[in-house]
Amino acid sequence: MSASPHTRTVVSCTLLVMALGVTVTACSSDGNPLSATPYDAADQITFEGAAGAKKKADPDKPLEVTADGDGRITDVSAADGAGRHVAGELSADGRRWHSTSPLAANAHYTVRVSTEDEDGAPGREVHTFDTGKPLSKKRLDVTFGPEKGKYGVGQPVTAELSMPVKDKAQRAIVERALKVTSTPSVEGNWHWVDDEKLHFRPKEYWPVNATIQARSNLEGIKVSDRLWGGRAKPLTLTTGDKVIAVTDASSHWMTVYKNGEEINSIPVTTGKPGFETRNGVKVVLGKEYFVRMRGTSIGIAEGSSESYDLPVYWATRVTWSGEYVHAAPWSVGSQGAANVSHGCTGMSTGNAAWFYENVRPGDLVKVVNSYGDTMEPFGNGFGDWNVPWKKWQSGSALLGGNPEGPKPEDAARLRPENV
């Protein structure tokens, strides 16, 4: 009689040892199904939906696996050639498994199914299929930022989308596909700034000398009925030392720390009444050796007592609206004693040159004890670190929150300042 596909092989062995006249007797398996070689379960399962297509499958259709006869499904693993796994759900009776995450278009999938028969013997089946092109031609492209390079430990990773995504479920699909990893590893997550931009930051600052990589698995993934994920160029960043400059507006001094050690203490002047410097943490955006600063750029009329037009050197930018740390030789007499600027942090030319040479984009500038408002979280630079961690997490579509970013109409109300 020939063995059926479901027949389990019972392995036995006999070991005879002759030593000093002692005989050791035979041993055999206990018949545990887990010790059996998995049988071919092809006749026990049926692939439906996308997996059951004879030609290239429609990626809009879910992947379905059902058990036939008296057997049951114990596990299903499905992934495409890029290593993207398909999430799924198995019914309580083990009779049906279906995908719960979308399939990618133009992808090759391998599905591995584990089963067991009525006696508990394990079975295996491997199935492959290809998906075709999506019907829609709209693509959601992603651009990661900043540019590849070395940054300070405060630099957020950004992701700009080629078109807005408003629906929370669609945002979850997008966010799940955007991956950020770092070595050493850290806890962090994305925060939706608005419908077209996300920021990623860790709970704390990035580690010193870390390598950060951002990539997208969104290509070919269905976001909505008319929108599919497009390509994205991966990004690699590295961090340097942990540099934090703390400016105390009440004592008029800046203390600069490198990896927790104080490396300089500098007399400064910050914003005077009506032009108070923002409190909070700001991230260095860039450095400009020379900037021409005019009062008219922040709404000061020419000829007024507050009007100015000055050449400024060694300028380190911390907001897009014009707040810098820069050389202010005209206010040396007030530095360390009074606040006389229009919002910037001013210092001597020598100190400004030292600061300029010892910081890089991504380093941190923190202002305390100013009468100014707190730095905006978004829209005027990187105020990300002023958002408490729980509130930051609430801006993730995967963690169930809503973004707290400014509305588009708020952009015009961002207060500019310089000098």
Structure description:
With 419 residues, the chain is mostly beta strands. It folds into 3 domains: 39-130, Sandwich (Immunoglobulin-like), CATH 2.60.40.3780; 139-239, Immunoglobulin-like; 243-391 and 398-405, L,D-transpeptidase catalytic domain-like (Beta Barrel), CATH 2.40.440.10. 6% of the residues lie in helices and 37% in strands. It has 3 helices and 30 strands. The strands form 8 sheets. A 5-stranded mixed β-sheet has the order 24-23-22-30-25, with no helix packed on it. Strand 9 (108-116) and strand 10 (122-130) form a beta hairpin. The longest helix has 10 residues, at 168-177. The protein is elongated. The N and C termini lie far apart (96 Å). Mean pLDDT is 85; it is low at 1-30 and 402-419.
CATH homologous superfamily title of the largest domain = L,D-transpeptidase catalytic domain-like
Categorize the overall geometry.
elongated
Number of DSSP E strands: 30
* Order of strands across the main sheet: 24-23-22-30-25
Instruction: Provide the helix percentage.
Output: under 10%
Low-confidence spans: pLDDT under 50, at least 5 residues?
Answer: 1-30, 402-419
Query: In whole angstroms, how far apart are the ends?
Result: 96 Å
Q: Could you give a short account of the major beta sheet?
A: 5 strands, mixed
Question: What is the C-level CATH assignment of the largest domain?
Answer: Mainly Beta
Give the overall pLDDT as a whole number: 85
Tally of individual helices: 3
Total number of domains: 3
Report the CATH topology name of the largest domain.
Answer: L,D-transpeptidase catalytic domain-like
Percent of residues in beta strands? 35-45%
**Helix-strand category:** mainly beta
**CATH architecture type of the largest domain:** Beta Barrel
C-alpha Rg (nearest Å): 31 Å
